[in-house]
């Protein structure tokens, strides 16, 4: 479930915890299938005694730059969580991987459904090369978005979810951005006008920045939900305009929000504000 704002929040938390500069003393892998691109022994040897010299995000990936020049990538997928422990490590059946760090710290990876992925790579493009532009970068502009949309006849919802089109967007923030832009999720991308593309650009930027400012979206209180590095919840769920609000009135016009399956994803929109035939 974690999307770009949730991943960015985790990175911000890691940076505040001063994880950059820490050395990876050793790793423990409790679920070998979580490691991609190398067997567990090669993975463990490749990161042991390496210092974390940089930390950034690309799309929904957490990227650790190691002192060797290699990169450790983490994709949380649906139910992955990171927890930074000082002192004794936790004992949980859901811990799939643990990094023991200098300073008596442990970075522990929880994943109830085991969908997350860890990669050790020398070349970032081997994993990230297919990804589209970052929506909050300066290079991403309304006119660029319009040109990108004109090349596709796909419906807006599945296109915006496609990481090769725009990096980092997911179900929550796509629904919210489309509501902000008053665009129906099934509108063909190449039918979007230049003015509508500008509204969509503004909507994407608005909802992503709001998600980061409120430390992400935590829906519910189960183990599979998103939590911050210290185990606390995000607050963006109180700011949602349409997502998970089916049956409730639209904040803009009062029409009841509907839920519909689009490209096998639950999609929430206002049938009046986002009228496909308007």
Explain this structure.
The chain is α+β, with helices and mostly antiparallel strands. It contains seven helices and eleven strands. The protein is 25% helix and 22% strand. The strands form three sheets. The chain has a five-stranded mixed sheet with strand order 2-9-5-4-3. Strand 7 and strand 8 (105-111) form a beta hairpin. The mean pLDDT is 95.
Overall, the morphology is: globular
**Number of helical stretches of at least 4 residues:** 7
Uncertain runs: none
- Strand order within the widest beta sheet: 2-9-5-4-3
- Biggest sheet statistics: 5 strands, mixed
- Arithmetic mean of pLDDT: 95
Task: Provide the succession of SSEs.
Answer: HEEHEEEEEEEHHHHHEE
Strand-pairing-aware structural class: alpha+beta
Computed CA radius of gyration, to the nearest angstrom: 20 Å
Strand content: 15-25%
Helix percent band: 25-40%
In total, the number of strands is: 11
Distance between the termini: 32 Å
Structural descriptors:
278 residues; alpha+beta; four-stranded antiparallel beta sheet; 7 helices
Produce the secondary structure layout.
Elements: H1 4-16, E1 24-29, E2 35-36, H2 40-47, E3 52-58, E4 61-66, E5 71-75, E6 80-86, E7 95-101, E8 105-111, E9 117-121, H3 125-128, H4 142-149, H5 156-161, H6 171-181, H7 194-213, E10 258-262, E11 265-269
Parallel strand pairs: 2-9
Antiparallel strand pairs: 1-7, 3-4, 4-5, 5-9, 6-8, 7-8, 10-11
């Amino acid at each position: 479930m974690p999307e770009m704002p949730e991943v960015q929040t985790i990175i911000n938390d890691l940076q505040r915890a001063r994880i950059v500069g820490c050395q990876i003393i050793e790793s423990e892998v409790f679920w070998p299938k979580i490691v991609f691109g190398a067997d567990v022994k090669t993975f463990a040897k490749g990161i042991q005694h390496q210092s974390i010299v940089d930390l950034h995000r690309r799309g929904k990936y957490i990227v650790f730059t190691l002192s060797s020049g290699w990169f450790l990538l983490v994709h949380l997928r649906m139910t992955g969580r990171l927890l930074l422990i000082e002192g004794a490590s936790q004992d949980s059946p859901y811990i799939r991987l643990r990094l023991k760090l200098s300073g008596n710290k442990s970075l522990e990876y929880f994943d109830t459904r085991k969908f997350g992925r860890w990669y050790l790579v020398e070349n970032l493009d081997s994993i990230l090369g297919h990804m589209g532009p970052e929506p909050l970068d300066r290079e991403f502009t309304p006119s660029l978005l319009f040109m990108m949309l004109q090349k596709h006849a796909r419906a807006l919802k599945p296109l915006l979810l496609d990481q090769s089109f725009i990096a980092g967007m997911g179900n929550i923030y796509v629904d919210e951005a489309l509501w902000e832009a008053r665009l129906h999720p099934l509108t063909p991308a190449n039918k979007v006008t230049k003015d509508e593309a500008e509204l969509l650009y503004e909507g994407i930027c608005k909802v992503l920045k709001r998600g980061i400012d409120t430390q992400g979206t935590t829906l519910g209180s189960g183990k599979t939900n998103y939590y911050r590095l210290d185990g606390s919840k995000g607050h963006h769920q109180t700011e949602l305009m349409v997502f998970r609000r089916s049956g409730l009135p639209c904040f803009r016009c009062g029409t009841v929000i509907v839920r519909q399956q689009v490209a096998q994803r639950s999609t929430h929109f206002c049938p009046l504000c986002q009228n496909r035939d308007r």
